[in-house]
Amino acid sequence: MNRLRINLVLILCCQWSLPLLAEESFSQATTTLAASCAACHGPQGNSLGGTPTLAALNNDYFIQRMQGFRSGAIPATVMHQHAKGLTDEEIIALAAYFAAQPRGTPLVAPQQSFKGAQ
Ligand code: HEC
Question: The Cytochrome c domain covers which part of the protein (predicted)?
Fold first, then answer.
């Protein structure tokens, strides 16, 4: 029983330290930009619901979508505005950042859940 509990703690610790480790290899400009996406797309791009998950998204697909939003070629509700403020270099850096983020269910207190607020 105790061993099972220790294993669970280890699994949880490892799972949640990975995003922090991954973040270290990106510039502060990129992590700051990515933090602005977290308001809607969740921590490290793991959506809390209502928006697409960006974590572990394919690099090329991410760039294609962002350029499409920026040019207006892809219909969107809010992403046109966000994409318009980004340079090609920033989109490429964000694509690499989100591609490197592991997918997981974000740990949130129930009262912080989007579903609870609706
Ligand atoms: C105000 C909320 C909001 C913010 C902030 C936001 N997004 Fe989005 N994002 C959305 C919504 C909603 C969609 C679905 C398309 C739409 O309706 O605009 C989306 C779609 C996307 C997609 C397409 C995903 C797919 O699977 O097709 C990408 C890529 C994306 N966002 C990247 C970003 C990045 C990078 C940032 C930060 C620079 C960001 N978003 C900030 C709300 C947001």
Answer: 17-102
Fold of domain 2-105:
Cytochrome Bc1 Complex; Chain D, domain 2 (1.10.760)
How many A from CA of 1 to the centre of ligand 1? 43
Ligand 1, atom 25: nearest CA belongs to which residue? 52
- Ligand 1: which residue has its CA nearest to atom 29? 62
Q: With a threshold of 0.85, does the pTM exceed it?
A: no
pLDDT per residue as tens, the chain (118 positions): 566 665 555 555 555 555 555 445 899 999 999 999 999 999 999 998 889 999 999 999 999 999 999 999 999 999 999 999 999 999 999 999 999 999 987 666 555 556 655 4
65-73 long-range contacts (CB < 8 A, ≥24 apart) are 66/91, 66/94, 66/95, 67/91
